[in-house]
Amino acid sequence: MIKEEDASASQADVLAVLASNEDGLNSEDLMKQTAGMDVKARGEAVNALLSSGKVEMLPGHTPGAFILRLRKGTQIADATREEQLIYSLIEESGKKGIWIRDIRDRTGLSQTQMRKVLKVLEQRKLVKSIKAVGTIKKCYMLYDIVADESLTGGTFYSDQQLDSQFVETLAHICVAMLQSKRKFSEDNHKNDPAAAREFSFVRSTEVAQFIREKGVCRVQLNIADIESILSVSLLDGFIERRADGMYRALTAKTTRCAPSYCPCIHCPIESDCKPGHIISPQNCEYFTSWLDW
């Protein structure tokens, strides 16, 4: 029988090894790094650490394999090993969540087992599921976490649908503000076209401040939201954006060369646009309009 002090020493050695390997170790690597430890002592140390919650076991990269690592997340009360395992994976995923397929692949649980555990965690209000914009797949995250905008679509989406009326109204207000700024600048610098042009440009922060001060929107908008709205007006040809990121209203008589009208040049989500994807040239109304122009 292993003495209590020897057991404590073995546990301390295992903890020290795992502490120096943040992503954890599989059983083979743990054996190599604790080669001087008795096999039985190592096994009992690992079991004791798992029972105490100091160490957690995650599925390995091959069937039947596992990884031991220091517990990073929360130990939930009255949970089975499977419930704790899935909860830890969901907790680790943060506000971007984890897809149900990834949970299945990383836990090695059957579909039935996994769904049963997820149902229990949802009933206990420990986790929640959401459907990301543009997909019907379920994504899980902790119950109190606010989902990342890449999943919800952000401020301008409601129930996975773009609030086009809200976007159109805000775009109209932003353009009107820029038009007013341009007129004011031109009226005050009638004899200096260069100054009239320079002072007609506005930063997105100024537009955001204007929206806040006028109280035209009950939703809290950040700078990124305002720039998204300005990008819509830019694509619609109502405003222009300078290289330094400042904006100015365009007049009806303003002319531009044909290539400058290509929406891809100004599109804020150009990096996400790929043929065959949800965001693609095939379903882009701006690109279609440009081709028909």
List the main descriptive attributes of the protein structure presented here.
elongated, 293 residues, DNA-directed RNA polymerase, DNA-directed RNA polymerase III subunit RPC6, transcription, RNA_pol_Rpc34-like, 3-stranded antiparallel β-sheet, mainly alpha, 12% strand
Characterization of this structure:
By secondary structure, this protein is mainly alpha-helical. It contains 13 helices and 10 strands. α1 packs across α3 (39-52), α4 (81-93) packs across α6 (111-123) and α10 (204-214) crosses α11. 20% of the residues are buried. It is found in: Nucleus. It comes from Cercopithifilaria johnstoni. Pfam families: RNA_pol_Rpc34.
Strand-helix topology:
Layout: H1 4-19, E1 25-26, H2 27-33, H3 39-52, E2 55-59, E3 66-70, H4 81-93, E4 98-99, H5 100-107, H6 111-123, E5 127-131, E6 138-142, H7 149-152, E7 157-158, E8 161-162, H8 164-188, H9 193-198, H10 204-214, H11 223-235, E9 239-241, E10 247-249, H12 263-266, H13 285-292
Antiparallel strand pairs: 1-3, 2-3, 4-6, 5-6, 7-8, 9-10
Topology, number of strands: 10
Distance between the termini: 85 Å
As a whole number of angstroms, the C-alpha radius of gyration is 28 Å
Reported for the largest beta sheet, the result is: 3 strands, antiparallel
Arithmetic mean pLDDT: 81
Structural class: mainly alpha
Low-confidence stretches: none
Element order: H for helix, E for strand: HEHHEEHEHHEEHEEHHHHEEHH
Task: Count every helix, treating DSSP H or I runs of 4 or more residues as helices.
Answer: 13
Function: DNA-dependent RNA polymerase catalyzes the transcription of DNA into RNA using the four ribonucleoside triphosphates as substrates. Specific peripheric component of RNA polymerase III which synthesizes small RNAs, such as 5S rRNA and tRNAs.
Family: Belongs to the eukaryotic RPC34/RPC39 RNA polymerase subunit family.
Protein name: DNA-directed RNA polymerase III subunit RPC6
Main location: nucleus
